[in-house]
Amino acid sequence: MFEGRVLRRRISSGLVSDARIVRNRQKIEAAVLNARAVKIIQQEHGSFADFVWSFVGNKPIDTPRDEHNPTPESDALLKALKTYNCKFVGTTICYASMQATGMVNGHAATCSSRTKSKTKRKIVSKTTI
């Protein structure tokens, strides 16, 4: 379970000086805010996965591209995340996340990865938060 006040205490007690992590206070505080936002999203949508997958109609979209520019779907995801006050997130990171999780296949039409089997969304049972 996420404990924002524990992380807040660690921020004030030296987390910013920990050489093993990004030491930007704003980014650390954004991690706290974003985690809170994810909890709210989970409560409202059943799971964070249900929320993000809704932006691609709950199935992977195939968009062969030669450029890796953001899409209307990643723009929409960003806009929705901003309504939950998420910080340090942009449309490019949304698109990259969508690619990394199999929501979007943006490989060029000639890319060898297109011949590999396609990943289907794994349905995970929802747990109470």
* Dominant shape: globular
Provide the CATH top-level class: Mainly Alpha
Task: Compute the number of strand runs.
Answer: 2
Task: Count up the domains.
Answer: 1
Q: Percent helix among the residues?
A: 40-55%
* Corresponding CATH architecture: Orthogonal Bundle
Structural class call reads: mainly alpha
CATH superfamily: Hypothetical protein, domain 2
Mean pLDDT metric: 80
Which percent range describes the beta-strand content? Answer: under 5%
Task: Give a short account of the largest sheet.
Answer: 2 strands, parallel
- Termini separation (Å)? 8 Å
Subunit arrangement of the protein: single chain
CATH topology: Endonuclease III, domain 1
Tally of individual helices: 5
Topology as H/E string? HHHEHHE
Pfam families: Adenine_glyco (PF03352)
Keywords: Glycosidase, Hydrolase
Protein name: DNA-3-methyladenine glycosylase
GO molecular function: DNA-3-methyladenine glycosylase activity
Walk me through what this model shows.
Its EC number is 3.2.2.20. This protein has helices spanning 4-12, 25-45, 48-53, 72-83, 91-100, and strands at residues 61-62, 104-105. The protein is mostly helical. It has a single domain (4-115), classed as Endonuclease III, domain 1 (Orthogonal Bundle). It starts with a helix and ends in a 24-residue tail after the last strand. The model has no long low-confidence stretch (mean pLDDT 80).
Question: Could you provide a short overview of the structure?
Answer:
By secondary structure, the protein is mainly alpha-helical. The protein is built from five helices and two strands, in the order αααβααβ.
